[in-house]
Specification:
This protein has about 110 residues and is an alpha+beta fold. It has a single domain (about 1-110), classed as Alpha-Beta Plaits (2-Layer Sandwich). The protein is built from three helices and four strands, in the order E-H-E-H-E-H-E. A four-stranded antiparallel sheet has the order 2-3-1-4, covered by helices on one side. The longest helix is centred in the last third of the chain and has 12 residues, at about 70-80. Bound molecules: adenosine-5'-triphosphate and magnesium ion (MG). The site of adenosine-5'-triphosphate has 14 residues, from strand 2, strand 3 and strand 4.
Length: about 110
Amino acid sequence: MKKIEVIIRPEKLDDLKKILSKNEYSGLTVMSAMGCGHQKGFKNPEFEKLGLSINLLPKLYVMTIVWDEDLESILSQMVEKLSTGSVGDGKVFVSDIEDVMRIRTGERGRDIL
Ligand SMILES: Nc1ncnc2c1ncn2[C@@H]1O[C@H](COP(=O)(O)OP(=O)(O)OP(=O)(O)O)[C@@H](O)[C@H]1O
Ligand SMILES: [Mg+2]
């Protein structure tokens, strides 16, 4: 199994959810986030109004676990649907997941995803 951590523009959440549901995944975790990448953010006028001098932009952090064999196709669909071609589209971090357990039943392994 692979963990996919995706940091996206907030307005792209629906598109990301569509990609996952099309691939028959229903589980995901979403967190509101602030961040910057290569451009190191920029002075956000909204923060300046509040007197904050941080150069971070609002993003969403989405975490989902998928089967190894679905990874490449899902990554391709993300490029296709989530890229606007402008800086700040976000990044995807992929890592290995050893096991998963459903707390309600104690069931383990990839079949419970
Ligand atoms: N190396 C990183 N580690 C952790 N989070 C990152 C990293 N790079 C980017 N992010 C997160 O992803 C968000 C979007 O990054 P962004 O799309 O600007 O990346 P980039 O590398 O600058 O690409 P681009 O040139 O297309 O803007 C950031 O706001 C931050 O939350
Ligand atoms: Mg950037």
